[in-house]
Amino acid sequence: MRFDKKVIRRILHYLKPYWFFMLCSLLFAAVSALLALYLPVLTGQAVDIVIGKGRVDMEAIKSVIFKMLCIIGISALGQWIMNACNNHVAYCSVRDIRHSAFERLQKLPLSYMDSHPTGDILSRMIADVDTFADGLLMGFTQFFTGILTIIGTLILMVSIHKWVALVVILLTPLSLFVAAFIAKNTSSFFKQQSVTKGVQTTIIDEMIGNEKLVKAFSHEAEAEELFNKNNAELEKISLKAVFFSSLTNPSTRFVNNLIYALVALAGGIAVIRGHMSVGNLTAFLSYANQYTKPFNEISGVVTELQNAITCAGRVFELIDEEARTPDKEDAAVLEGAKGGLDIKNVSFSYVKDKPLLRDLNLKVTPGQRVAIVGPTGCGKTTLINLLMRFYDVDKGSIAVDGRDIRDYTRHSLRENYGMVLQETWLKPGTIRDNITLGKPDATDEEVIAAAKNSHAHSFIMQLPKQYDTVIGEDGGQLSQGQKQLICISRIMLSLPPMLILDEATSSIDTRTELKIQDAFARMMKGRTSFIVAHRLSTIKEADTILVMKDGNIIEQGDHKSLLSAGGFYSKLYRSQYEI
User: Are 272 and 363 in the same domain?
Assistant: First the structure.
């Protein structure tokens, strides 16, 4: 049986704060095990008392029965306290592991989230931690109790008859060999099982989260086929894991029953020859059964522990993932940014051998409206990610108000940006909660004013509970355009000094868009603004238009100068509007 020592050390680290409960659990486990070992002695005494006609001592039997009842009661109480301590240790340590995993999740860079399926992360934090808890509950004291029972019964059997005890000792390694052989072959299967479960969770999460897309493209059959293929693979791996692990108990039981039969034969011969009493033989057989029973339990515990440690290892992999670069100890807090930006020689790539942005240079004065256009994949959204410091540049620097953004805290930097994206960000809660996300202390009057500016007020008033209408994280029954209007209302309420509008009106009808453009124009006045748009008619009034292609700014100027230049921008514009 092979256990990952590093994972075990990590588990012990999480168990350390609950050492008192672990000690209590082991103490009461020992008490229960020792009392259970004393019961066969009393049983043997009772048998010897009733042997022979006219030799029954009822008072002595009553005394023995009373002692047995007391021992059973104390043992049961000890078991209850032991289980209570086990539950406390297991669930508190699991709580701490989940807290560490979730805390690490908040510190991981977006690159990790972009490269790992959500379902696999969920599987590690939920299913794998639950499996670890089950294994810990089962194995925490059973292993200790089993070892204690084996040692105790061995000593007592030797004290009763050492030669018959020798039969048990010589045959016991057979049981250990069988258990070890089976356990050795189950670890890899349980690891494959955990990985396949993670893939299945990913498939389910994707299909449920994109159900409308699946139905719109009639992808139901393909989705079902994908799930069935994974489910069949999981069935195959799980069957192997469970089959091999389930062989442990019957195999060891067969060996143990064989040992029991041989002990009974040897003990019977000893009784016939007068080397031990019938009561002693009764106690000895009970000890022989108790001696072999822990081997069954320990083999089962080992299998569960292997599964638990494998799952714990997957969770620790998540906890050990390299966190994003932390804020500097002397990082400044950006307050009331003026909005001047200076991008110098910036290079960046998501994949190291596939460069995206190369030697990008740009200077933006406070209050300037900068539009970014270009074909899909040219780096427009990537530039936004770098400005917000969702990713850090590979080379070069980005400065706000003359200072590198890496010298500011991330929180304060992002507080000075307002974002409206093509993809809406909504959380479960009321319409009001979603609008006040950037300004929680806003008054009702401010919320309504912001909604009116974004032209969201009219449709909100038609909802069942108006601003108190509860929506889900995907916006519930709201249309994509309505969701986008709520996100625009959020920005118009908080009014940060710098704005990022990435296809902010892509889901809104043309008439409403024209009205919002006027509101945007008022909102952007005096604020540094970055506008990403495919509809070039929406950026005519921008102070500067950056034309990007293959990660570089190939043209720069205002709308008129770029049109007259007859370059790439002119071709883009003419492809949309023939002039």
Answer: no
